[in-house]
Amino acid sequence: MERKPQTLANHAKFDPAFHFFLIPILAINVIVIAIQLFRYPGVLGLWLLLVSLALVVMAGRMRSYATHLQDRIIRVEENLRLARVLPEPLRSRMGELSDSQILGLRFASDVELPALVQRALDERLSRSDIKRAVQEWRPDYSRI
């Protein structure tokens, strides 16, 4: 399967089952239960509304857990890459990079990485600033 080249403009990923099925169904469920509770007040309706809200929170937290775990894995991978690619003066400053900066640097090619790390440190670039500065995009097709 040939993949579309990844860029800053298209690197954000949607999971159709999550974003276009699960979340809308859970949101509609909360609305339907709330309408039913308004029309027919009662303890059971209140309980169903609470369970519906709990399902929305659970779906959000599960998504959050997955992305936070991926961020941790990316930090490990990128720290290994930085140690391999950066020249010594910059390698000794790797600890000064924020987690957010490291996550943004993952899209930079090995060739442009040292200069971009230097800029990130000197100019305190944000993750989005770093991603905008990348000239040769290194795709991450595994991100959820």
Describe the structure.
The chain is an all-alpha fold and 144 residues long. It folds into 2 domains: 14-68; 86-139, no CATH class. It is 67% helix and 0% strand. The protein has 6 helices and no strands. The chain has helices at 16-39, 43-85, 88-91, 99-105, 113-123, 127-133. α2 (43-85) crosses α4 (99-105) and α4 packs parallel to α6. The longest helix is centred in the middle third of the chain and has 43 residues, at 43-85.
Q: Outline the low-pLDDT stretches.
A: none
Rg? 21 Å
Rounded average pLDDT: 93
Q: Which overall shape is indicated by the principal axes computed on the Cα atoms? A: elongated
Count of DSSP H/I helices:
6
The topology string of helices and strands comes to HHHHHH
Number of domains: 2
The share of residues in helices is: 55-70%
Main sheet? Answer: none
Q: What is the tally of beta strands? A: 0
> What distance separates the N and C termini?
18 Å
The chain-level structural class is: mainly alpha
Strand composition percent: under 5%
Short description:
This protein folds into two domains: 55 residues; 54 residues, no CATH class. Helices cover 67% and strands 0% of the residues.
